[in-house]
Structures are given as C-alpha cells and as structure tokens.
Amino acid sequence: MSKYDALANYLLKFNKNEIELDFLEIEKIIHSKLPTSAYTRIEWWANDNISHSQSKYGWLAARYYVIHIDLKKRKIKFKGNN
C-alpha cells in the first residue's frame, strides 16, 4: 500500500476532465508532506508508472495524467482519461 493510493481515491471521486490541485491540497489528501523534489523538480511529476511510485499509485492509477506543472505557484493540473 502506498500513501499515494489516497490521491488515486480522491481523483476517482471526480467525473471531471481536468482537475487542478495545489501542493497543500495534495498533502492534505495523502496525509503527508510532499518531498522537497516535488517542490523543486518538474521530473517528480512525470507520468511514469515504472520508477515513480507517486504517479503509478497516485494519478495514473486513477487514469489521470499531469498536463501542467507550476512549481512557482505550487499547482498541478491533471487530465482524466475516463
């Protein structure tokens, strides 16, 4: 079980094409702080289901993909593939 399962469950509740969340909202959802690299490296948000547990068990498990990353504003936009 991954802490990012909670993000997948949260995203699955929506029937929206796109969802934008800020980092604090994501931290509340997963009940944990995001690592520093999530705040500083775009690569952390890659749609990679092999080497990134956050994407594999988080948004990709809910059939969402990251389509926009704003590290300055600390916001992520997900697009659903439902």
Please tell me about this protein's structure:
- The protein has one domain.
- It has a 3-stranded antiparallel sheet with strand order 1-3-2.
- The model has no long low-confidence stretch (mean pLDDT 95).
- It has 82 residues and is α+β, with helices and mostly antiparallel strands.
What is the 3D shape?
A: globular
Please estimate the helix content.
25-40%
* Total beta strands: 3
Instruction: Write out the strand line-up for the largest beta sheet, numbering strands in chain order.
Output: 1-3-2
Q: Whole-number radius of gyration?
A: 11 Å
Mean pLDDT level: 95
Largest sheet: 3 strands, antiparallel
Count of domain modules? 1
Percent of residues in beta strands? 15-25%
Distance between the termini: 23 Å
Instruction: List low-pLDDT spans.
Output: none
The helix/strand series, from N terminus to C terminus, equals HEHHHEE
Helix-strand makeup class: alpha+beta
- Please, how many helices? 4
